[in-house]
Specification:
CATH class of the largest domain: Mainly Alpha
Order of helices and strands: HHHHHHHHHHHHHEHH
Number of strands: 1
Radius of gyration: 24 Å
Strand content: under 5%
Structural class: mainly alpha
CATH topology of the largest domain: MetI-like fold
Mean pLDDT: 88
Helix content: over 70%
CATH architecture of the largest domain: Orthogonal Bundle
CATH superfamily of the largest domain: MetI-like
Shape: globular
Largest sheet: none
């Protein structure tokens, strides 16, 4: 740790340009940090019944505190919000239990927690079983909805991407053509277009009387869209695996699927960890685009809260809160990615 710190310090003065940039950023910090601290802490108001109790010279964190439950749970009925905690808590507890398991069992438990998540969300958040009332997805919102869309889509994108990557490299022309066409078409349109197609245009292409939940359509659309990008990342990992690995697998008598499952794919995924996590972070942030199709995710709940007559004029605090939440989760994913890379290098 001391070696890294000293290396960092030496890098600040390694050249005249480094010295100039160090002085520039130090001066910029000297100008901005006191102002930010005064606004965010010293002059901030943490307790107030409405916006009139806040000072315009500092942040009104009372607005965030007052609307915190809405930011987390959205328009979900207050008396039923415990179901959201249970729906997320069960897979989380299972995933955390993997920390005390052996390396061999850890992967299976993490995979089980991913499979448990959609079942847990369907049983508890939607309801209709075990005496729980049905809560329509139009009432889902806040950060809980952001996590539902992000986790479901990201978890689905990985197997979709693997199949598309293998399909694009297939020696069967039809499979290769279909996979390549899907990947290129999906990557050539913006995500917002995919959301509009899933939300607005899709109902025109299904028989009359057939309805597919809007949230389900959104998750499927985002999963397929993310899967196309994931396919290219994994294809790059497959190409990076040494040719000798394929030959060694064939020499051991492995068939195509055995070779991919036990030898090639594990290496390709290990190589692709940085790019895969980068995609995860990008699509986690892109879930905010669902506000354009009327889903009340975290950002949309913040926007709607700022139109409350009791809290007019505090948009900045809402945006800062949303940015902090996204930063924490994205930084956590990036840090875990570096941890995985370090573990792989030690092997």
């Amino acid at each position: 740790m001391n070696g890294k710190f000293m290396s960092f310090i030496r890098g600040l003065y390694a050249s005249p340009f480094s010295i100039a940039m160090t002085l520039f950023w130090a001066y910029l910090a000297f100008l901005t940090i006191p102002t930010v601290v005064n606004w965010a802490v010293i002059n901030a108001v943490f307790v107030a019944e409405d916006g009139d109790g806040c000072s315009r010279s500092g942040a009104c964190w009372a607005f965030i505190i007052a609307r915190f439950d809405d930011f987390v749970f959205g328009r979900y009925p207050e008396a039923e919000r415990w179901r959201i905690i249970v729906a997320f808590g069960l897979p989380l507890i299972l995933a955390l239990s993997s920390l005390i398991m052996s390396q061999k069992q850890r992967g299976k438990i993490l995979f089980g927690s991913i499979l448990l998540f959609p079942i847990s969300v369907l049983l508890f958040m939607y309801g209709g079983v075990l005496g729980m009332e049905v809560v329509e997805t139009r009432l889902w919102g806040g950060f809980a909805l952001t996590l539902v869309i992000a986790i479901s889509s990201i978890a689905s994108a990985l197997p979709i991407g693997i199949l598309l990557a293998l399909g694009r490299r297939s020696h069967m022309p039809v499979i290769a053509l279909v996979s390549t066409t899907f990947i290129e078409v999906a990557r050539s349109v913006p995500m917002i277009t995919v959301l509009f197609v899933a939300s607005i245009m899709f109902p025109f292409f299904v028989p009359e009387g057939v309805e597919v939940d809007k949230l389900l359509r959104t998750i499927i659309a985002v999963s397929l869209f993310a899967g196309a990008y994931m396919a290219e990342v994994i294809r790059g990992g497959l190409q990076a695996v040494d040719t000798g690995q394929y030959e060694a697998s064939a020499a051991m008598g492995h068939g195509y699927w055995q070779s991919m499952r036990f030898i090639i794919l594990p290496q390709a995924l290990r190589i692709s960890i940085p790019a895969i996590v980068n995609l995860f972070i990008g699509f986690f942030k892109d879930t905010t685009l669902v506000l354009v199709i009327g889903l009340f995710d975290l950002l949309n709940m913040v926007l709607s809260a700022t139109s409350d007559p009791k809290w007019l004029g505090f948009e900045v605090e809402g945006y800062v809160f949303a940015a902090a939440v996204y930063f924490i989760f994205c930084f956590g994913m990036g840090h875990y990615s570096r941890h995985l890379e370090a573990k792989q290098k030690q092997r």
